[in-house]
Design a protein that fits this description.
By secondary structure, this protein is an alpha/beta fold. The chain contains 22 helices and 18 strands. Helix 5 crosses helix 6, helix 10 crosses helix 11 and helix 21 packs across helix 22. The longest helix is centred in the N-terminal third of the chain and has 19 residues.
Length: 593
């Protein structure tokens, strides 16, 4: 059969989930169900047959996670898994069912190249004679145009589908805006169908489809059975097959030409889908026009901090650590001192070193209301998933906090990891991209996105590479780690030449000999020159205080020509020292505030 001709005349119905159904069917479920291609071939074959007998016209090979990253680079094992998975599917399909090589996402770790990982899997399938390819549950469209071209060069009549996991709010877990991905993918000539799968149940996927303009697109839609609940340590999907089938019929009316099921679906769901979807007549099928999100332009505010930087003026940022308890009296007092001395913005760390403190964003809202100045809360990827992050950003935007600093976040201290878990759904680059997309689609007063730059890193070229990726994802300003060595200064100069972004040079006053030794040996990302450390030996507290001002002013003088402002980190809540440094910097005409 020619699949292109079939789709012209018929609705193409795929199978449902393999992984979740295998866990239910197998008496010995394995963590990676792809291994069952070698150890439980009868179970995999029977699952394929159940879907076919339910009325499905296309099945996916049991190879979703079969790639070198997931299997530790064991190429020989992967070749066996892919070969067996393809042969089982072909045996179950016979001559009447379309078999698709199922390829899931590859998680690039900074070392592996995504295209090469896709290419290895694709070439394995091509050697076996595969002609139909499904790239599914993707969070971005990187490498797809290139890998599709590679497939077509080897198999001219290949049929390629790409499918993305877009959450109900329109974004992928990597922070990409789904509508933007589709706009790019419709221009990729070697991809003949594209669509959505996983993450959402049929109701939300249908709702999302109504907001897209996907005319002249062969559209695939494969929702989850619904949303999972955990009962007695088992993950269950409680939506009924009948309800799923009804929703899938509405999805067909919305223009889907290829449908199926994802997580939680089983042959009963697909049997209902086949019955309900085939009742849809041609004159019922519509494709709604695009509906862009509306921005409330009357809420647009001036971002004083970012505007000052854009005008080429040097700025001053001062960081205050949030308190560890509910008494914020000293914190508020220090913030007022910092404002009075002329700081442009106060930054607030988000539970530094992974230990709980007062929430940086809530403090930012309070300071914004009470001091009416710009506040820069840090937002980490450690403690919030994408939903919680969006909710937080909406709240900050409403409260008039117009700038955020995105950081991956320090790990939870090892002693607490049994009770407290990190989230890390994304990294700082992905979070920046997510906020940048929200700026373009939701916020009439867009956030100024800031990032961190470690000028003390052993391999600064890697830091520059990451910084450039952050810039591509929307970061406009970098705040550096404290500069207290010649290497740090040299790296700042290099960054000033290389990066198309504003840079605030970090200064952290040293308040004692012991403090200098501690920072140099215990705090990641901070290096203190031995000459500075020796200055503090055998000095009284008052002498150390004067040294802190003198050394910090000297550093400010050294860095000012290679940055767009200063970023002073307050030590031990000593706002008095910071105020003295700011006044000294102004007196020396290093910075005009």
């Amino acid at each position: 059969m020619d699949i292109r001709e079939y789709i012209k005349e018929h609705l193409l119905i795929f199978d449902g989930a393999m992984g979740t159904y295998f866990m239910k069917k197998s008496v010995n479920p394995q963590e990676k169900c792809e291994l069952a291609n070698l150890t439980q071939q009868e179970v995999i074959y029977s699952i394929h047959r159940e879907y076919i007998e339910a009325g499905c016209k296309a099945i996916k090979t049991n190879t979703f996670g079969a790639n070198r990253i997931n299997f530790g680079g064991d190429e020989e094992l992967l070749k066996k898994l892919i070969k067996s998975g393809y042969e089982i599917a072909c045996k179950a399909a016979g001559d009447d069912i379309f078999v698709f090589a199922d390829i899931g996402p590859v998680e690039e770790d900074g070392v592996a190249d995504g295209f090469e990982e896709f290419k290895f899997v694709v070439d394995c399938f091509i050697e076996l004679g595969a002609k139909n390819f499904l790239f599914e549950t993707l969070s971005n469209d990187k490498h797809l145009e290139k890998i599709a071209k590679h497939i077509k060069q080897k198999v001219k009549d290949a049929f390629i589908i790409t499918s993305f996991a877009v959450q109900p709010d329109g974004y992928t877990r990597d922070g990409y805006f789904g509508r933007d991905i589709f706009k790019r993918m419709v221009e990729v000539k070697n991809v003949e169908a594209l669509g959505l799968n996983c993450v959402s149940g049929p109701f939300h996927m249908l709702h999302y489809l109504k907001e897209l303009n996907l005319k002249n697109v062969t559209l695939l839609v494969m929702p989850n059975a619904g949303y999972p609940t955990v009962v007695n340590n088992r993950t269950l999907f409680d939506a009924s097959p009948e309800y799923f089938g009804l929703q899938m019929a509405d999805i067909v009316r919305q223009g889907a030409a290829i449908i199926g099921g994802c997580c939680g679906t089983n042959p009963e769901y697909l049997r209902e889908t086949v019955i309900k979807a085939k009742q849809v007549t041609g004159d019922e099928i519509i494709v709604s026009s695009v509906k862009d999100g509306e921005k409330l332009d009357n809420l647009k505010r001036e971002n004083h901090f970012m505007n000052k930087l854009e005008r080429g003026q040097k700025v001053l940022a001062v960081e205050l650590d949030p308190p560890e308890n509910a008494d914020i009296t000293k914190f508020i007092t220090n913030a007022k001192k910092i404002k009075d001395v002329g700081a442009d913005i106060i930054t607030i760390a988000d539970c530094p070193v992974g230990r709980p403190r007062v929430d940086s964003s809530l403090l930012a809202c309070k300071l914004k209301r009470e001091l009416n100045m710009d506040i820069l809360p840090h937002i980490t990827c450690r403690d919030r998933n994408l939903n919680a992050t969006k909710a937080l950003l909406l709240g900050l935007n409403i409260e008039g906090v117009d700038n955020v600093l995105v950081v991956t976040g320090d790990p939870i201290p090892s002693a607490q990891r049994d009770e407290v878990k990190s989230v890390f759904n994304f990294n700082s680059r992905m979070l920046a991209r997510y906020i940048d997309n929200l700026n373009q689609t939701i916020f009439s007063s867009p956030f100024g996105i800031c990032g961190a730059l470690n000028v003390n890193a052993p391999n600064f070229n890697i830091q520059l590479k990451l910084a450039k990726e952050k810039i591509e994802n929307g970061v406009k300003v970098f705040l550096t780690q404290p500069i207290m060595t010649q290497k740090g200064l040299d790296n700042l100069k290099y960054a000033h030449e290389e990066l198309d972004a504003k840079i605030l040079a970090g200064i952290m006053p040293v308040v004692s000999y012991r403090n200098a030794c501690f920072m140099n040996n215990e705090i990641s990302g901070i290096n203190v020159d031995e000459k500075i450390i020796k200055l503090y030996e055998n000095k009284t507290p008052e002498q150390c205080r004067k040294l802190a001002v003198k050394v910090s002013t000297y550093i400010a003088k050294e860095v000012v020509d290679y940055c767009d402002g200063l970023y002073i980190i307050t030590p031990f809540s000593r706002a008095d020292i910071v105020c003295d440094i700011v006044n000294a910097v102004k007196d020396a005409k290093i910075l005009k505030l």
